Amino acid sequence: VIEQYRENSPNRGKFIRVVYNGTPLSIPQCHESGKHHDLNEKFCTLDAFRACIRQFIPENYLAECNDMKHE
To answer: What's this model's pTM, rounded to 2 decimal places?
Structure first.
């Protein structure tokens, strides 16, 4: 499960937490300072999470779907 949280205080953003079988996962790319919530490393900043998963998101869906038709 991917959960999204937002802090109401000024200058704070959105955070993502990934949970598997009821256990929050630790994402190594979010451990650096500034890439997670100040109190809990398992809450990634939205920007850090996007950077982490960007490699898994196709840039051109149509091209990739057409390639799959020929396999």
So the answer is: 0.72
